[in-house]
Design brief:
The radius of gyration is 24 Å and the shape is globular. The longest helix is centred in the last third of the chain and has 35 residues. It has four domains: about 100 residues, Ribonuclease H-like superfamily/Ribonuclease H (Nucleotidyltransferase, domain 5); about 110 residues, Taq DNA Polymerase, Chain T, domain 4; about 100 residues, Alpha-Beta Plaits (2-Layer Sandwich), CATH 3.30.70.370; about 140 residues, Orthogonal Bundle (DNA polymerase, domain 1), CATH 1.10.150.20. Helix 15 packs across helix 16. Strand 1, helix 1 and strand 2 form a beta-alpha-beta unit. The strands form five sheets. It has a five-stranded antiparallel β-sheet. A three-stranded antiparallel β-sheet has the order 4-3-7, with helices on one face. It has 19 helices and 14 strands. By secondary structure, it is α+β, with helices and mostly antiparallel strands.
Length: about 500
């Protein structure tokens, strides 16, 4: 058996050279990540020191010693099934996805590059005009000096950095956006600058000779089980807004193929409904009622048909925020409400979804008493800080504790679906899984096979795991990622 710590890279190299894969292999880094997902360093040297209390020597059975320790722990924590049936099969799937990459429209990116440069120049001019100062917009120090010393913008609710300087991060700018007309312009500049410098420029540089870009997936990148990606990070490309759509248009299908995106609909809220057994939430999902509309109806105390788009928007922010343990201050900042209004909203929310509050309190108590929480699949996360004497530290651990069973199961469901899809389409060159973005899978499918393949993929995704409420998947197809249309 091949034991290693970077098996995905080994498999990629073998596949690229057309060589056969070893019959049996295990990634020890993945095993230790399941044992403790908050470990920062999964190198054999660190793991040997930390868990075996000795240095790592590959010639003296170092791999075998770590394997024996990990095997015992996985069994003790009831994580064997998750390791062998979900995480390990995923290694090869991710290797295939990274090798395949995704096609880019380089001409579109070059045109977009010029448009964004022009727009950024115009925005900078407007900012300089409104502030009556020319300065480096990308310097937090200079920006802070202009906003708070020159313009004297009210500092209410603004946090300071660890070094004692006044913060100019996005949260701060959102807090003060209504206090001076220049702040919305700076927010827009920041958003476009990020698109330009993080995606539009690097994507052109990272494209290979075939015009395809290859991200690298990190299986051990998050404590909840979600995948992350880097070089480039294709999971954080904004989906909302005119410019974000233009960036997504650059991701295209090969000639004769189409892109198909299949997205789990409100999967985390469906999991929350199942975990809490909240009757109102479960009834909404069982009857295909818009959960955000229902929440707005109950919080605002109006009939469903009287719910306005603004009411639904606030309810949506609240629904998703609740599963992350969002408090009144965070909800106020995100929604634009006052802290008092936000507090009232949250109180009304839990009055209508009592079982959600009960489940959260039980989970927090478990986190304090046991020092860890698990999801329904057995994935676990340590929560030792939940019993800390420091309220901020304890609060952060409690928020992590109520989020992990929800987000962790959502991650598992997606991964389980990926494994089953791989089993169904293995060796099929007409259907290629290209990307995974949070709750969405993006495929490249032969044009004449799209309807048939999407129908089968949707069926697999919706049956990958059984919750107390139905799991729903929405499918969209198109020639580029920015202009996908619903597939009925």
């Amino acid at each position: 058996m091949l034991l290693d710590f970077n098996l995905k890279q080994i498999l990629k190299e073998l596949k690229a050279k057309g060589k056969p894969l070893p019959k049996e292999y295990l990634d020890l880094g993945l095993a230790f990540w399941l044992i403790n997902p908050d470990e920062k360093d999964y190198s054999p040297e660190n793991l040997s020191r930390r868990y075996l209390h000795e240095g790592f020597d590959p010639l003296a059975g170092g791999f075998s010693k770590l394997f024996q320790f990990a095997e015992k722990k996985l069994k003790g924590y009831k994580l064997e099934k998750l390791f062998h049936e979900v995480e390990m099969p995923l290694v090869e799937i991710l290797a295939d996805m990274e090798l395949a990459g995704i096609k880019l429209d380089l001409k579109h990116l070059k045109d977009l590059d010029k448009k964004l440069e022009k727009q950024l120049t115009e925005l900078a001019k407007d900012v300089y005009k409104k502030t009556k100062n020319t300065f480096n917009l990308n310097s937090p120090k200079q920006l802070g000096d202009i906003l708070f010393n020159k313009l004297k913008i009210d500092l209410g609710g603004v946090k300071k950095t660890r070094g004692g300087a006044i913060s100019t991060d996005v949260d701060t700018l959102l807090t003060i956006k209504d206090r001076h007309p220049v702040v919305p312009l700076i927010l827009e500049y920041r958003e476009l600058f990020k698109l330009h410098s993080t995606y539009v420029r690097p994507l052109q540089e990272l494209a290979d000779a075939n015009g395809r870009v290859h991200t690298t997936y990190i299986q051990t990148g998050t404590a909840t089980g979600r995948l992350s990606s880097q070089n480039p990070n294709l999971q954080n490309i904004p989906a909302v807004g005119e410019w974000a759509k233009e960036v997504r248009k650059a991701f295209i299908a090969e000639k004769g193929f189409k892109l198909a995106a299949l997205d789990y609909s409100q999967i985390e809220l469906r999991i929350l409904a199942s975990l809490s057994s909240d009757p109102n939430m479960m009834e909404a999902f069982n009857n295909d009622v818009d959960i955000h509309k229902l929440t707005a109806s109950q919080v605002f105390k109006v009939p469903l048909e009287k719910v306005t788009p603004d009411m639904r928007r606030l309810a949506k922010t609240l629904n998703f925020g609740v599963s992350y343990g969002m408090g009144a201050n965070a909800f106020a900042k995100t929604s634009g409400l006052s802290v008092a209004e936000a507090k009232k909203f949250i109180q009304d929310y839990f009055a209508n979804f009592k079982k959600v509050r009960e489940w959260q309190e039980e989970t927090k108590a478990q986190a304090r008493q046991q020092g860890f929480v698990t999801n329904l699949n057995g994935r676990r996360r340590l929560t030792l800080e939940a019993s800390s004497m420091y309220s901020r530290e304890a609060g952060e651990a409690e928020r992590a504790a109520i989020n992990m069973p929800v987000q962790g199961l959502a991650a598992d469901i997606l991964k389980m679906a990926m494994v089953k899809i791989q089993e169904e389409f293995k060796g099929n060159k007409d259907v290629r899984l290209l990307l995974t973005i949070h709750d969405e899978l993006l495929f490249e499918i032969k044009e004449n096979k799209v309807l048939e393949a999407v129908k089968e993929i949707k069926k697999i995704m919706e049956s990958a795991y059984e919750l107390e409420v139905p799991i729903r998947v929405e499918a969209k197809t198109g020639v580029n990622w920015g202009e996908l249309t619903n597939l009925k």
